[in-house]
Write a structure and sequence with these properties.
single chain; Hypothetical protein YwqG fold; 27% strand
Length: 284
C-alpha cells in the first residue's frame, strides 16, 4: 500500500496567505502546495463553471528512500527482483528509475491492469528524459534489488503520500468584462493549476500543459510531474518540518538531482484496452 495523506488534518496547518496582495495556484509537490490549491478551490466556487468532478489520486512527497519499497515514488531503488536484468539504453548506459506507481488502491479509478506496480525507467544523456522503458511488477515477496548502477542518471529519491481528491477537466472561468479571477477580493494568478492539479497522480483527468498533450492512444493512466517543493514554507517535504530557507535568505542552488521534466513539465502515461502503454512529455 501507499503512504496516506490526510488532507483534513493538514489544511488547518496551512491557512491561505496572499503574497503582495495576490494568490496563485501552484504545482503540487508538498503539503503547502496542495493545501493552497484546495483553499483556493473552496473560496472560488462562484468563479468557475466547474463541470463534472473526476476522482484522482495525487501524491505529495517525502524526501529520501521509503521504508515501504513498494510505495509510489520518484527515483531511487525500484521494487523489482535483484535477479532481473537492469534496463539499458541502446548504447548500453544503465537507465534510472524515473518513477514507480503503486496502483493497488487506485483500481477503482483505472480498472484492471497488467500488474500492481508500473516502473518507468529513463535516461537524460541526450538532453530530454528519454528513451523511456516501462515494466510491470506484481506485489509479491521477492529478493529486491539493493543497489543502483553508478553510471545512470542521478535523481534524488522521494516517495509519495496518496490523497484522493477530484479534478474538474471541463471547468471554465466565469468572468465579466475586465474582471480578473479573485479570491476574497484578491487577484488569483495561475488559475490553470486549480481545476486540475499538476501533480504526480493516478487517474483519468490529469493537468495537461498544452492542448496536444492529450492526443495519445488509449486513456490517461498516470502522470509524472516535476518535483518543485516550496523552499520558504514549512514542510517542503512531508517528512521535513522546517523550511529549506528563510524569507530573508537567498535560495540555495537548485538541486540538479531533483526530477525536472524540461522546465517543470510532466510525463503523461496512457494505456489502451489491451494493456499497451504510451507516453508523452510536455513542459513550459
Amino acid at each position: 500500500m501507499n503512504y496516506e495523506f490526510d488532507l483534513a488534518e493538514w489544511l488547518p496547518r496551512f491557512p491561505l496567505l496572499d503574497s503582495h496582495g495576490t494568490n496563485s495556484g501552484e504545482i503540487v509537490t508538498s503539503p503547502s502546495s496542495l493545501c493552497n490549491n484546495e483553499w483556493l478551490r473552496r473560496g472560488m466556487r462562484e468563479e468557475f463553471d466547474w463541470g463534472d468532478a473526476v476522482p484522482v489520486d495525487i501524491f505529495v512527497f517525502g524526501i529520501g528512500e521509503p521504508d515501504n519499497r513498494f510505495a509510489t515514488k520518484i527515483g531511487g531503488l525500484p521494487y523489482r527482483p535483484a535477479s532481473s536484468r537492469w534496463p539499458t539504453t541502446s548504447n548500453g548506459r544503465p537507465m534510472a528509475l524515473i518513477a514507480q506507481f503503486n496502483f493497488t488502491q487506485s483500481l477503482d479509478l483505472v480498472g484492471k491492469l497488467p500488474g500492481d506496480l508500473l516502473l518507468i525507467f529513463g535516461d537524460d544523456s541526450g538532453g530530454e528524459v528519454e528513451p523511456l522503458y516501462f515494466e510491470w511488477q506484481p506485489l509479491v515477496p521477492t529478493d529486491l534489488v539493493m543497489g543502483l548502477p553508478q553510471e545512470s542518471m542521478a535523481i534524488t529519491p522521494c516517495f509519495g503520500y496518496r490523497c484522493r481528491t477530484v479534478s474538474f477537466p471541463n471547468a471554465t472561468e466565469i468572468l465579466s468584462d475586465n474582471i480578473r479571477v479573485q479570491w476574497d477580493g484578491k487577484e488569483v494568478q495561475g488559475c490553470y493549476w486549480l481545476p486540475t492539479y499538476q501533480a504526480m497522480q493516478i487517474g483519468r483527468a490529469p493537468f495537461f500543459i498544452h492542448p496536444g498533450d492529450s492526443d495519445l492512444p488509449g486513456s490517461p493512466l498516470c502522470t509524472v510531474s516535476s518535483m518543485a517543493p516550496d523552499l520558504f514554507k514549512p514542510y517542503p517535504w512531508v517528512n521535513r518540518p522546517d523550511a529549506i530557507c528563510l524569507d530573508s535568505e537567498w535560495p540555495p542552488p537548485h538541486d540538479p538531482a531533483l526530477l525536472s521534466i524540461g522546465d517543470t513539465g510532466c510525463i503523461y502515461v496512457f494505456i489502451e484496452d489491451d494493456g499497451t502503454v504510451h507516453a508523452g512529455q510536455s513542459c513550459y
